[in-house]
């Protein structure tokens, strides 16, 4: 074990890994602090460049941006009541009222410290839980992985409460996109309509860049560049740090646990983790009436939960090769480009790489916390960057990134098409994530379905193994619970309507 750790330390002691650590951690904070950009846009833009880097360098860069952006997103959420990333929306509930009371430095320090605890606890969970799940993974046959991917699709749909039909339609669109192009067994064309460039299929990266980066650029280009009033930040940067570790560590640890659980479950992510942890913290608090009005417990619960998700979302990715949400789906492509297959064999053949990734995740959290505690007054200035200028930069970088992958102009048109689709979906408030997860999981489903058919004679043969049967039961229970909840809500709405009339 000591030898493995020394090999991993030598692996991350290279200058390119160190630079990736610094750029990912510091750049992620800056990206998160700029309202309207967010980690999804930044990762989508940088994704083509990471294909030419070493896998540890590329993944460290992307994971640094992913985790650090959630730290930085708390800055505008607290100071100007505008979340830097969509995930930081709940931070405004209590963070901004604390800042309005004249304690912006304390609010920022509380957010940083809670995020640090969430990040560190989730990395520990990644270290201890991933090998356990990977040890079970060899017992997963093609039918088991097929059912696990189907479970992922079901959970993606069900977790979009109030938008389940929209999410189902978008997941179906994502799955359909994966079948466009030349069929891999008989080499027959599927939905290419005589267009030669479609025979290679619609690639994931142009879709990602279009849906997340180009669509956001369109929205930024339409926004107004009004001035933002930002309060001055004074006081000790360590005030909230001591408060969290002395008085609020229970809230931070419990909320981090929720973030880990929600990060592991495919399709759930930061939003549900935040709301579950926030609700639990309010129920267990001695002063629940202060939540939403400047409660330090509420702020700590929100921030520790959302920062626990990134590392936890890597658990099913590393152990099973199944991404839990859109950003880990993007990172899966980095593994594939470098012929690294997530799963048990990765731990056997590339154990020093895995341990190096763990160490990098630890270091990212320490670098981010040190940077935030020392450079917050300078970071506040990035909030003033004009949104239209950002839109031009994002659009330019996205198109350059798409073209650089294969030097293909049709890829740029595909990205623009997905950008227009993403723009429409954002305007009607439909989610973008189901399309990407539909594309990634749809590819897994098709491959495993083909493999399974050699051993299947009846539909029941898909679930005649212990693992696949268990997953099938979970799918049925999840659907039944959702249908029962919808029926109960419908009856309650009808009774309320009758009572008011």
Features:
501 residues, mainly alpha, two-stranded antiparallel ribbon, 2 strands
Largest sheet, strands/sense/barrel? 2 strands, antiparallel
Shape: globular
Number of domains: 1
The total beta strand count reads 2
Q: Which structural class fits the helix and strand makeup? A: mainly alpha
Distance between the termini: 71 Å
- Written as H for each helix and E for each strand, in order along the chain, the element string is HHHHHHHHHEEHHHHHHHHHHHH
Number of helices: 21
Please list the strands of the largest sheet in the order they lie side by side: 1-2
Rg of Cα set = 23 Å
Which regions contain 5 or more consecutive residues with pLDDT less than 50?
none
Percent range of helical residues = over 70%
Query: What do the pLDDT scores average to?
Result: 82
Strand content: under 5%
């Amino acid at each position: 074990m000591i030898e493995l750790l020394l090999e991993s330390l030598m692996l991350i002691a290279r200058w390119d890994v160190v630079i990736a650590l610094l750029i990912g951690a510091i750049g992620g904070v800056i990206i998160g602090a700029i309202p309207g950009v967010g980690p999804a846009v930044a990762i989508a833009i940088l994704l083509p460049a990471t294909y030419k880097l070493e896998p540890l360098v590329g993944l460290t860069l992307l994971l640094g941006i992913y985790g650090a952006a959630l730290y930085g997103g708390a800055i505008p959420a607290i100071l100007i009541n505008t979340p830097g990333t969509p995930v930081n929306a709940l931070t405004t509930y209590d963070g901004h009222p604390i800042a309005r009371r004249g304690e912006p430095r304390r609010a920022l320090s509380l957010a940083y410290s809670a995020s640090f605890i969430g990040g560190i606890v989730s990395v520990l969970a990644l270290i201890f839980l991933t090998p356990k799940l990977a040890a079970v993974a060899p017992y997963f046959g093609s039918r088991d992985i097929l059912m696990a991917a189907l479970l992922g699709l079901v959970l993606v749909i069900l977790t979009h409460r109030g938008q389940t039909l929209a999410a189902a339609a978008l997941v179906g669109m994502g799955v359909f996109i994966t079948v466009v192009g030349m069929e891999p067994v008989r080499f027959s064309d599927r939905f290419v309509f005589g267009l030669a460039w479609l025979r290679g299929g619609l690639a994931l990266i142009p879709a990602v860049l279009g849906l997340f980066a180009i669509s956001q650029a369109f929205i930024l280009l339409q926004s107004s560049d009004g001035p933002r009033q930002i309060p001055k930040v004074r006081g000790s940067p360590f005030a909230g740090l001591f408060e969290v570790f002395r008085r609020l560590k229970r809230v931070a640890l419990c909320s981090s646990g929720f973030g880990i659980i929600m990060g592991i479950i495919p399709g759930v992510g930061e939003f549900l983790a935040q709301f579950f942890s926030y609700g639990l913290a309010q129920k267990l608090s001695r002063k629940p009436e202060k939540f939403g009005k400047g409660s330090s417990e509420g702020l700590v619960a929100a921030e520790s939960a959302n920062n626990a998700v990134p590392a936890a979302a890597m658990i099913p990715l590393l152990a099973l090769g199944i991404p839990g949400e859109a950003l880990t789906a993007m990172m899966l492509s980095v593994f594939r480009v470098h012929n690294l297959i997530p799963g048990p064999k990765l731990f056997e053949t590339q154990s020093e790489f895995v341990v190096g990734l763990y160490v990098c995740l630890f270091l990212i959290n320490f670098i981010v916390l040190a940077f935030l505690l020392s450079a917050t007054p300078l970071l506040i200035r990035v909030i003033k960057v004009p949104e239209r200028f950002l839109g031009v930069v994002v659009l330019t970088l996205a198109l350059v990134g798409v073209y650089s992958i294969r030097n293909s102009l049709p890829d740029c048109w595909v990205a623009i098409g997905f950008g227009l689709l993403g723009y429409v979906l954002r305007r009607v408030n439909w989610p973008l994530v189901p399309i990407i997860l539909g594309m990634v999981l749809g590819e897994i489903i098709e491959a495993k379905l083909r493999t399974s058919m050699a051993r299947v004679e009846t539909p029941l043969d898909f679930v005649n193994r212990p693992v696949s049967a268990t997953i099938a039961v979970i799918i049925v229970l999840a659907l039944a619970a959702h249908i029962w909840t919808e029926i109960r809500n419908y009856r309650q709405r009808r009774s309320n309507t009758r009572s008011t009339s």
